[in-house]
Amino acid sequence: MQTGLVIYEDNNHLRESLGNLITFSKDLVLLGNFSRADDVAIQIKELLPEVVLMDIDMPGISGIEAVRQIRLFDQKVQIIMLTVFDDNSHVLDAICAGASGYLLKKYISDHLLEAITEVVQGEAPMSPGIARMIINKMQQTTAPVLNDYKLTDREKEILSVLSRGNSYKLIAAGLAISIDTVRTHIKKIYEKLQVHSQTEAVSKAVNERLV
After folding, report:
1. pLDDT tens for each residue of 56-78
2. 123 close to 163: Cβ distance less than 8 angstroms
3. What angle in degrees, to the nearest 10, is found between the helix axes of 179-193 and 198-207?
4. Nearest Cα to Cα of residue 76 among 108, 114, 30, 44
């Protein structure tokens, strides 16, 4: 089954390149391709994509505001932010607004398909720098909650590594276990924390001092 995508990018050349990458992939289908996000709510409700590629800086409605609008009616669609800088505070704002991860524009040709696969599988493409920004912000604004959700030592270890922005592949390699074992642990972590995504899990873990 193909994964449906919608692109929001005001750079015509980059938007065309993204469309070509998706069109040439047998596992993906391009549902929409837009230079502005002014009508994002109508478009997403009509096209029902599994993944949205969203430029952070656009004329009219910004990518961050577009994410907020989408999350008002759709919590399941995966949203990958497209950005020039990996230390931009706007990336942090987008993640906090509900984005699933982000992709540097200079690496799009090499990492786009990988990033799409990751978010579809429940991962969150995100650099350690952005993960640390999220942790720092939450630690500055939240109080500890004494509840460990009966997480095992291994689950706490994986949750800690996950919160640093590591992919499932890196976690598996670092802990000398299989990717399937990592996925099994993360599924149990989600169940215990009562969350549905990596971003939610990391947010809750930091918010309640689990990592």
Report:
1. 989 899 999 999 999 999 989 99
2. no
3. 60
4. 44
Compute, in degrees rounded to 10, the torsion defined by CA atoms 115, 187, 173, 156: 120
Phi-psi label, residue 165: left if phi above 0, alpha if psi -120 to 50, beta otherwise: left
Are the beta carbons of 182 and 192 closer than 8 angstroms? no
Of residues 38 and 109, the one with the higher pLDDT is 38
Banded pLDDT at 204 (limits 50, 70, 90):
confident
Tokens encoding 11 = 């750079």
- Taking the C-alpha atoms of residue 31 and residue 158, their distance in angstroms, rounded to an integer, is 35
**Per 3-state DSSP, what percentage of the chain is helix, strand, and coil (rounded to 5)?**
55, 15, 35
pLDDT at position 45 over 60: yes
- Rounded distance between C-alpha atoms, residue 68 and residue 118, angstroms: 22
What value does the mean pLDDT take over residues 142-146? 54
Question: What does the alpha-carbon distance between residue 52 and residue 161 come to, in Å, rounded to a whole number?
Answer: 26
- Which pLDDT does position 188 carry in this prediction? 93
Task: Answer yes or no: is pLDDT of 49 > 60.
Answer: yes
Domains along the sequence of the chain with CATH:
3-125 (3.40.50.2300), 134-207 (1.10.10.10)
Residue 131 and residue 103: Cα distance in Å, rounded?
A: 13
**Which parts of the chain are beta strand (E)?**
3-8, 28-34, 51-55, 78-83, 101-104
Burial of 123 (0-12, 13-18, 19+ CB in 10 A): buried
